[in-house]
Amino acid sequence: MGTTSLICDPNELRDLFLFESLNDEQLAWLCKDGRVERFEPGLVFREGAPATCFYVLMEGEVRLTKISGGEEIELVRTDHHGSYSGAWTAYMGDKIDQTYSGSFYVTKPSKFFVLDAGTFSQMMHEWFPMALHLLEGVFFGNRNSNEIIGQRERLLALGSLSAGLTHELNNPAAAAVRATSSLRERVAGMRHKLKMMAHGKFDSATMEALAQLQEEAAAQVAKAPTLTPLEAADREDELGDWLEAHDISNGWDIAPTFVQAGFDIDWLEKVHGTLTGCEGAVFEGAIRWLNYTVETELLMNEISDSTTRISTLVNAAKQYSQMDRAPFQVVDIHELLDSTLVMLGRKIGDNVQVVKEYDLALPPVPCYAAELNQVWTNLIDNAISAMDGRGTLTVRTYRDGPCVAVEIGDTGPGVPEEIRTRIFEPFFTTKPVGEGTGLGLDISFRIVVNKHHGDIRVESEPGDTRFIVRIPFERADAPGSIETVGTAI
User: What's the number of CA atoms in the CB half-sphere (13 Å) around residue 455?
Assistant: First the structure.
């Protein structure tokens, strides 16, 4: 792009709103240390390059862009006289990173007043020392406030998740303790019943047949059908009547256990036929022996299910927190989403239907996994809040060009159009005072856009609100050491 140097006229600078209050001496100083240049259409500076100059538009048209999700997005296009861009934070020196925050283009022949970054910094320090201190205070004060409140929001979320996890762990743990206690009683009963059977009238063939029935009963428990409450009640009535007819005392107490294991009248008839000749207390002892066998199998299944649930929750917590893993990894995005859903299970509740529509053919994604989990947490938490704890939560993944797209959708009332452009602003919240900090979406935006070079946007109408996050599959600036978690399908 070509440039041409022009003569600097102090009176022309006075027409720019930035300089309209300067005196003649100051305007002369600007002309002496600055310069006026004409630029042909093209790039003036590139995002991320060292910020060396401060530009003020005198005539023409410019546009400012920023990279998002691997694409260059236009933020501003203007021909406003006096618009400025470039090294405008040079006065802060090495307190902050001095690079261009976006790319700057000229769209038609344009004229600028240009100051070198060092000159601009000197001017600010010499002419506006009080304003400079105020600006620095506002800049760093806001940044520190954001960090403090952001940290508090993360701690509040962690506390909420920890409480939910404790509750979720307590249920299966308590169930396992109860089942273990009951199992101890059943085993003691089996020992007692075995002693009684040893004094009964069983020959070796009958004992062998009973042992075979016991094996069949244990195997049947593993494949018991799922019955509706009505079906179970009807079958309990049938089995209770049969047991009563065969002089089994308190047969109605035994019937539910046999029904839960999937047994019916035909199986009891088979037991009766096998034990032909064994009547009275001996036959009842054999039935109760088989009942103890079924109960112990059911209790062991309950213990197994409870401990498996505990293990699943612990693994989900480790996946969510990324404990003992490198910050930057290549991961299966679905593992992150699933662990977040598990961690938020109590908050999601029973009145929200969770629908998962995953594209399992997606390749793994390079990312800061723990921080993306924070994004999913914020978006899902907002969705549950928007639906007031009742509705459908949809989590969808798909390929969108060079990116993986993750949609978090809800059936709430929607985001009003007049505030959609503000929802990612720091401290902006629609929640009542005291219920939200207004930093959840701001933190999510910075994690997705600044840290992952992706983008996040919202599409909303009543009954269908979707936050769409896009993360690139490839990262040119990825750290040198990357841990791979998960396998591409």
Answer: 13
DSSP states of 229-281 as a string?
HHHHHHHHHHHHHHHHHTT-TTHHHHHHHHHHTT--HHHHHHHHHHTTT--HH
Q: Do 434 and 51 contact (CB within 8 A), yes or no?
A: no
From residue 247, alpha-carbon distances to 76, 206, 273, 335 in Å are 89, 20, 15, 56
C-alpha torsion sign, points 211, 215, 221, 227: negative
Helix, strand or coil for residue 128? Answer: coil
* 164 neighbors 343 (Cβ within 8 angstroms): yes
Beta strands in 338-433 (DSSP E): 352-357, 365-368, 391-400, 403-410
Cα torsion angle, 222, 223, 228, 234, sign: negative
pLDDT band at 419 (very low <50, low <70, confident <90, very high): low
Integer Cα distance of 211 and 209 in angstroms: 5
Provide the pLDDT for residue 406.
95
Q: Give residues with Cβ within 8 angstroms of 349, minimum separation 6.
A: 384, 389
pLDDT tens for each residue of 83-133:
888 887 787 777 777 888 889 999 999 999 999 998 888 888 777 666 555
**How many Å apart are CA 465 and CA 410, to the nearest integer?**
5
Q: What percent of the chain has pLDDT over 90?
A: 17
Distance CA 184, CA 190 (A): 10
Amino acid 437: pLDDT: 40
What pLDDT is stored for residue 359 in this prediction?
93
Strand spans (E) along 47-121: 53-68, 71-78, 84-86, 103-116
Residue of higher predicted confidence among 429 and 178 = 178
The reported pTM is: 0.43
